[in-house]
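Input:
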Amino acid sequence: MSNAVPFVDLSAQYRQDEKAIDDAVRRILARGDFILGEDVERFEEEFAQYCEVQHAVGVANGTDALVLALQALGIGHGQMVLTTPLTYVSTADAVSRLGARVEFVDIHPASFNMDPARLEDFFKARIKETAGGVIDRTTGLRVGAILPVHLYGQPADMDLICGLAQRYQIPVVEDCAQAHGARYKGRRVGTFGIISAFSFYPSKNLGACGDGGAIVTDDPQLAASVRSLRIQGRRGKYEHMAIGLNSRLDTLHAAVLRIKLRRLDSWNEARRQAARRYDVLLGGIKGIQVPSWILGNEPVYHLYVLRAKEREGLQQALAAKGIGTGIHYPIPVHRQPAYQHLGFSEGAFPVAEQSAREVLSLPMFPEIQDGQQRQVADAIASWAKDRPYPN
Ligand SMILES: *Cc1c(COP(=O)(O)O)cnc(C)c1O
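Output:
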């Protein structure tokens, strides 16, 4: 369809830097330092600087970044990690992979992020404080970390989350996979936790030409630990101090990421402008709710997510007009078959469950055109007009 609006358009990013990217790829092919080469070190320095932290360590993908961040903190068997049920499943998988138990805290309906009030409820209802740390009375597990996610590029409420974490002396690990460059009260996400994880999956706000990820931290020991764990826990050349992963960032990806990093702030600004245009275009339409503005947040709109009670109908109406949409995510993590063993029934986290039924992600990428956004808005308006029941 010629007038279709794609959900994302990654080729537009390549066209902007075609020559620089092609040159970098040729340079690395000629040099042959494919794994953890010079560009990886440079990218780590540049990304740390961008994130306003001391250290960045490149790894193979965002899931590994979470696994290695948690492993560096000593998370494993006998521990519990608190996170949100509305996220990409790998947030929870990283915890489970290390033998720790994932526990969920319901989200706030406006931000779609971990609700600090529900986090406080958890502490009030379930824990006992001991010399060895905070223990969950239900499971007997120690609460090893709190893992908020800045979903859709919208920062979680870090003041309240970090306040509670500090009160109970529990480390915070941030999942920044959808929020590169976002700010909370002026500070970059990734700087609130003791260690934070990023993904460079191609469609993320900063994307490689394949899989990639990184951790960032101000703690030199945690950085050194991940640096070792990403290469089988190696120290020196032949000694292996811990059971790690093969999770290295390829030089080709690092080279491409270095080029794209220079544009990240302007891309994020373009996303914010596009979000504002959607807000205006969609403002008065019945049957949908546009994303909330949250005071103190500078979001980066990895996704622009509506709520619609009749989501399936809306999605079909848009698809019929060649407009790409997505659902992030239709099944909350606690209701996934892989997490059945935890025994959460329907209704365990009602806000996340209702959100999973209502969310719809509209086309969003830095290069989206005003005309494309109008097409989307017109299609939504005509769907709203044709609906049999006014709301
Ligand atoms: C993409 C993503 C991840 C995982 O990143 P990969 O690079 O795909 O492994 C983790 N958490 C969230 C919230 C994500 O969006």
